[in-house]
Amino acid sequence: MISRPGELYQITREPIEVQGISRKLLRAADGAVCVFEGVVRDHSKGKRTLYLEYEGYETMALKKLEEIGLFVRGAWEIGTVAIVHRLGRMDIGETSVAVIVTSSHRRPAFDACHYAIDKLKKVVPIWKKEFFEDGEVWIEGQ
Amino acid sequence: MKVRLLFFASLKDIVGSRDLRLDLPANSTVGDLLTELEKSYPQMKAYRPVILTAVNEEYVDKSASISEGDEIAIFPPVSGGAR
User: Fold this and answer.
1) Most B-contacting residue of A37, A113, A140, A142 (CB-CB within 10 A), to test interface
2) Tens of pLDDT along B28-78?
3) DSSP for B27-45?
4) pLDDT band at B83 (very low <50, low <70, confident <90, very high)
5) Whether A135 contacts chain B with CB within 8 A
6) Which one of A97, A118, A128, B16 has the minimum C-beta count within 10 Å?
7) Nearest to A141 among B59, B77, B83 (CB)
8) pLDDT band (50, 70, 90) for residue A114
9) Which residues of A touch B78 (CB under 8 A)?
């Protein structure tokens, strides 16, 4: 975990407490909190998903989360940022990843949050395996 | 020179291990390493066009050179997802 005033980057195996993190980040000067949560859905390509397992190259993944956070802090007028990814087994409806951005006004928070999750999906070395009734498969990018 | 290899996701399944130690000729590149691994694990060849590599936790391309003691990670594209 990397934690500094106004920043949090973490790879965890525990449930992500989004509400607690966002309340802790929030500064008096902030008028907006933008939260993106990626959650486990119950289907993939027409098949029913039972649960997922996430695996990561943890040390590199943490570095990449920090790089993304530092970038968005430089690129937008935001107050604080937290990027947290969970690994291990997760059931339907559980949060696997959260990006939380606070700012004085809403627009930079939306934009930074959107950029951060898109970038995360491209560069952070984490993979998911979907488990179905009749098998399992790694979901890998292109 | 001795290096440490890390494999993830489907590449880990192909190799059957997350963590290998290997002795490589001096001046090897990441591409040389992949070619060497493909001899032992032919299934890796299919991944060659998309495989990602990192040396000491930084992404590198296949022409990057390897040094004694490096940690080289080999993995498929990250999970991406529809937008």
Assistant:
1) A140
2) 999 999 999 999 999 999 999 999 999 999 999 999 999 999 999 999 998
3) T-BHHHHHHHHHHH-GGGG
4) low
5) no
6) B16
7) B77
8) very high
9) 121-127, 140-141
HSE-up of residue A67 (Cα within 13 Å, Cβ side): 14
How many Å apart are CA A81 and CA B69, to the nearest integer?
35
Asked if the structure places residue A139 within a domain, the reply is no
What is the average pLDDT across B16-23?
96
* Domain CATH number, residue A124: 3.90.1170.40
User: Looking at chain A, which residue has its C-alpha nearest residue B57?
Assistant: A60
* CB interface of A with B, residues 59-78, below 8 Å: 59-60, 63
**Domain residues for A37?**
2-132
Asked if A59 and B57 come within 8 Å (Cβ–Cβ), the reply is yes
Categorize the per-residue pLDDT at A104 as very low, low, confident or very high, splitting at 50, 70 and 90. Answer: very high
Q: Percentage helix, strand, coil, to 5, in chain B?
A: 30, 30, 40
pLDDT at A30 over 90: yes
If one counts every other C-beta atom within 10 angstroms of the C-beta of residue A47, the result is 14
Q: Establish whether this prediction's ipTM goes over 0.95.
A: no
The total of structural domains in chain A comes to 1
> At residue A70, what is the residue type?
L
Sketch out chain B's domains with CATH numbers: 2-75 (3.10.20.30)
Residue A75 lies in a domain: yes
